[in-house]
Design goal:
single chain; two-stranded antiparallel ribbon; MetI-like_sf; membrane; Peptide/nickel transport system permease protein
Length: 322
């Protein structure tokens, strides 16, 4: 077990170094930040001075070494656009994104898992077929279209929920939360539904497919032959064996929701990291973009590590193989 964890940690370090190199290299070609920061009539001397201040006149290897060293310490330099430390800007935006993803994940799990179980246990029922059709529609409709429809129905027509912003927040140390205010919770509903709706359909279809396959397994037949009730067979034996692939997908999708919250945050003007990234792209703000990519990669690596460790808790046989 310890050897396995150490191997995974080494692999994670190599992955993060590769991501850092990709981020640093890729964003070198999106534009010259000096052109965005200075007026068109700026002199050559002014441009050279700014390049020296930003460290852009140094060799690429030196710049990359400084980037990695700073990233390890949580420092990503100064934003070209806002003239502020990138770490401070991320710390301000991170709570909004994490609360949005948390609400969307809870929404997806609370709906997706029960719907998938019901569809697996009643595959020919009218409600199960209705859920399957609805899941196909949910997967097919683009996310931004879902967001626009939600705004049109609940904000414009019914005027029940706000269409943009985060509402009032409460500061708890460096963390700002909207969970403790009515306007914050109301502002969270539509973005969370938009971000989590695709995950609901994905989780439902995955749980349904996996559970139907498990119900056809030999050990389920033996459990029924022993005279166990349907409840004991379904939830004591089948559901536990269904969770392995579900945990993998849910873990990866959790990272995807953080990465692709950009669309949701743009539609609802949610003040999170995704909206910060979009603004940085339009200004060629390389430190912000690089920090965002590295942070998202770190989330994926951490989630993969947690998922792998959860496998050992769910299936003890893996401890022997490791």
């Amino acid at each position: 077990m310890i050897a396995y964890v150490l191997r995974r940690l080494m692999q994670s370090v190599l992955v993060m170094l590769a991501v850092a190199l990709i981020a640093f290299s890729m964003f070198r070609f999106i534009g010259d930040p000096v052109n965005s920061m200075l007026p068109e009539n700026a002199s050559v001397e002014d441009r050279q001075v700014l390049r020296e201040q930003l460290g852009l006149d140094q060799p690429v290897t030196t710049q990359f070494a400084k980037f990695v060293t700073g990233a390890v310490q949580g420092e990503f330099g100064v934003s070209y656009r806002n003239k502020r430390a990138v770490s401070e800007m991320i710390a301000e935006r991170l709570p909004a994104t994490l609360e949005l993803v948390l609400a969307a994940a809870v929404f997806a799990l609370l709906l997706g898992v029960p719907m998938g179980i019901y569809a697996a246990l009643h595959p020919k029922g009218f409600l199960a077929n209705t859920l399957n059709v609805a899941s196909l529609i949910g997967i097919s409709v683009p996310t931004f279209v879902t967001g626009i429809l939600l705004i049109l129905i609940f904000s414009v027509w019914l005027n029940w929920l706000p269409s943009f912003g985060r509402g009032q927040t409460v500061d708890i140390g460096w963390w700002s939360t909207g969970f403790l205010t009515v306007s914050g919770l109301k502002s969270l509903i539509l973005p969370a539904v938009m971000l989590g709706l695709f995950q609901v359909t994905l989780i439902m279809r995955l749980v349904r497919a996996e559970m139907m396959e498990v119900l056809r397994s030999d050990f389920v037949r033996f459990a029924r032959a022993r005279g166990l009730s349907n409840r004991a067979v379904h939830f004591g034996h089948a559901l536990g064996n269904t969770l392995m692939p579900v945990i993998t997908i849910v873990g990866l999708q959790l990272g995807s929701m953080i990465a692709f919250a950009i669309i949701t945050e743009t539609v609802f003007q949610w003040p999170g990291m995704g909206l910060l990234f979009i603004q940085a792209v339009s200004f060629a703000d390389i430190p912000v973009m690089s920090a965002y990519l590295v942070l998202v990669a770190l989330v994926f690596v951490a989630i993969n590590m947690i998922v792998d460790l959860l496998y050992f808790a769910i299936d003890p046989r893996l401890s022997v193989r490791a």
